[in-house]
Amino acid sequence: MMEEKMETRAAREIVAMMGDKALFSYIPGMEIKTMESDSRSSLDKIACYFHEEQFAISDLYIGYAVSLYRFTIPKVIAATIKVFGDLWPQKHIPKSIDRDALRNRMRKMCGMGMLRRVSYDLNGKQIVLYSATPEFAKVIYQSLKIATDSRPEKDMIPPIEILGHAASSLITSELMSSPYLKDFNFMPKYWFHDTLYIFNGKFTHEINGETFITIVEPLFTRVDTKRFTKEEWNTYLQARVEALWGYVDLQEKKQEGKLQLIIVCEDKDDFKNAGTLICNVFSESYLERIYFTSEGALKSGENILKNNMIRITSVVQNESEPFVKRPESVSSVPSYQFF
Question: Which residues have C-beta within 8 Å of that of residue 12, sequence separation ≥ 6?
Answer without folding.
Answer: none
